Amino acid sequence: MESERPLDALNSARNKRVLVELKGGKQFVGKLKAFDIHVNVVLEDAEERFEGETKRKLGIIFIRGDTIIMISPE
Amino acid sequence: MESERPLDALNSARNKRVLVELKGGKQFVGKLKAFDIHVNVVLEDAEERFEGETKRKLGIIFIRGDTIIMISPE
Amino acid sequence: MESERPLDALNSARNKRVLVELKGGKQFVGKLKAFDIHVNVVLEDAEERFEGETKRKLGIIFIRGDTIIMISPE
Amino acid sequence: MESERPLDALNSARNKRVLVELKGGKQFVGKLKAFDIHVNVVLEDAEERFEGETKRKLGIIFIRGDTIIMISPE
Amino acid sequence: MESERPLDALNSARNKRVLVELKGGKQFVGKLKAFDIHVNVVLEDAEERFEGETKRKLGIIFIRGDTIIMISPE
Amino acid sequence: MESERPLDALNSARNKRVLVELKGGKQFVGKLKAFDIHVNVVLEDAEERFEGETKRKLGIIFIRGDTIIMISPE
Amino acid sequence: MESERPLDALNSARNKRVLVELKGGKQFVGKLKAFDIHVNVVLEDAEERFEGETKRKLGIIFIRGDTIIMISPE
């Protein structure tokens, strides 16, 4: 995830497990399969976490970009 | 729902039952019939859920994209 | 309201009574007379509802799209 | 206010008294003098209302569209 | 402030004292010196008001349009 | 800061100390070094203030425009 | 970070440690590796801070621009 443009950085995280934090406080973890310029994101083998604990397992999820605060490879 | 672009991923979920979570905490489940680049979504045989329970049955619903946090095939 | 694009779906609901739910929790019911790509909507014979009860009758109303969560034919 | 496009509907309300409800709960009533595609609105002989009572008289007011929930002819 | 387009209406208020109400409840009063299509506004001899009382005097202020609810000539 | 367009007004404040108020209630004071059409702003010798007191000194800061309510030369 | 355009200012902070404050009150500190016109940002060796204390270490993070209030070199 080293590059000059932020989205190139996301590209380096493709197929790696990432933590995605949302505006409402939700946290999802999963393998980053896809993203676009709006930072819409698709995670595989996703789970929702709460205070470090797995809250529920979700499989594949589509997350709308405008709810995302931060994305970080685990 | 395997692809490089997030909206292609939604395309793979077409005609499958999906869970749609909204910013205000609402959850809808229904068969994904249509979506567009704004992530506006149409569900068929939709129901609103609350803590895993069916709260009301709604038939066909149009959900405005900018209220959506997450979409996941059941 | 069966189609590939969400707005086509709204088109099928034209002249039918629809339920419109807003971000602030408000609910309006009325005959869908018009809508546009922003999901601005015009309802005829509209009424505001609260917990299933008619709260007030409003005649014709224009609802700004960005406040809308969900539209469903009754 | 009968038409296929929502803004045509606003056009039919021009020079009539309308109720304008805002996101923060405010209500203004006045004669609709002007509007644009952003639903920016100008009212004449405007007053702010609260629970059906006139709260203050304002003369001419410009209301920014993105704060508007709903517009209805009285 | 009589015209067909809302921004023409603001133009008629140029160099007059106007009341500007913001989303967070703030109120500013001052002479309207400039505005643009985003409804960004410049007031001269501005003061902040709270419940009809002058809270502080500010001289010239630039107000970002997307925080504005309403503008009205005093 | 006298002009017909609001951003020209900001231009007159360049290299002067300005007060910047944000949506969340924060206040920054500093020398206005740069701004753009989104009202993104750079302040030099910036400090955060709270109820008229200096809360912390920050040096150079970049403030994202969409969080700004108001800018005023001190 | 001295320039006429705010994003040039960010450019001068590249590869330096910066403090990034978000709308929800979160604070991240890290080396600024990338940004774009939306103020999407990539930090390296990032950590989340709370009241001056390191809350957690995160490595590389992508922060979505529209959640950012302020960026300042440490």
Topology:
The structure is a homoheptamer of 74-residue chains.
Chain A: H1 6-12, E1 17-22, E2 27-35, E3 41-50, E4 53-63, E5 68-73
Structure description:
7 copies of one chain form a homoheptamer. Chain A has a 5-stranded antiparallel β-sheet with strand order 4-3-2-1-5, with no helix packed on it. The two termini of chain A are 12 Å apart. Chain A is mainly beta and 74 residues long. Chain A has a single domain, classed as Roll (SH3 type barrels), CATH 2.30.30. Chain A is built from 1 helix and 5 strands, in the order H-E-E-E-E-E. The longest helix of chain A is centred in the N-terminal third of the chain and has 7 residues. Chains in contact: A-B, A-G, B-C, C-D, D-E, E-F, F-G. At the A-B interface, strand 2, strand 3 and strand 4 of A face helix 1 and strand 5 of B. Strand 4 of chain A pairs antiparallel with strand 5 of chain B.
What attributes does this structure have?
homoheptamer, 74 residues
Give the amount of beta strand of chain A, in percent: over 45%
- The CATH class of chain A, by name, is Mainly Beta
CATH topology of chain A: SH3 type barrels
Count of beta strands of chain A: 5
Total domains of chain A = 1
Query: What is the share of helical residues of chain A?
Result: under 10%
Q: Compute the gyration radius of chain A: what is it?
A: 11 Å
Write down the overall mean pLDDT of chain A.
92
Oligomer: homoheptamer
Q: Using a beta-carbon cutoff below 8 angstroms, give the protein chain pair with the largest interface and the number of residues from each chain.
A: A-B, 23 and 21 residues
Low-confidence stretches of chain A: none
CATH architecture of chain A, by name, is Roll
Helix and strand composition category of chain A: mainly beta
Termini separation of chain A comes to: 12 Å
Number of helices of chain A: 1
**Widest β-sheet, arrangement of strands of chain A:** 4-3-2-1-5
Shape of chain A: globular
Major pleated sheet of chain A: 5 strands, antiparallel
Helix-strand pattern of chain A: HEEEEE
